[in-house]
Amino acid sequence: MSMLSRLLIALGILLSHLIIFFPMAELFLAYIIIFNPIWFREFLKNLDEPAMEKSE
């Protein structure tokens, strides 16, 4: 996905809710879409891994 596409998606999210309320969640989503931080990728990867069962 190109940087232009990411910027357009992020701007669309922000503009869609800008009139209704202060878009804290949209700002966070825009940050995730634009910068794709390592900590978020690790979070998603950890969600995909099966939970380890306790050995008793």
Structural class: mainly alpha
Main sheet summary: none
What is the molecular shape? flat
Order of helices and strands: HHH
How many H/I helices?
3
Tally the beta strands: 0
Uncertain stretches of 5 or more adjacent residues:
none
Overall pLDDT, averaged?
81
- Could you tell me the strand content as a percent range? under 5%
Radius of gyration: 16 Å
Please estimate the helix content.
Answer: 55-70%
Sum up the structure in keywords:
56 residues, flat
Q: How would you concisely characterize the structure shown here?
A:
By secondary structure, the protein is mainly alpha-helical. Helices cover 68% and strands 0% of the residues.
Reconstruct the topology from this structure.
Layout: H1 3-17, H2 24-35, H3 38-48
Helix pairs in contact: 1-2
Can you describe what's shown?
By secondary structure, this protein is mostly helical. It has helices at residues 3-17, 24-35, 38-48. Helix 1 (3-17) runs antiparallel to helix 2. The longest helix has 15 residues, at 3-17. The radius of gyration is 16 Å and the shape is flat. The chain starts with a helix and ends in an 8-residue tail after the last helix.
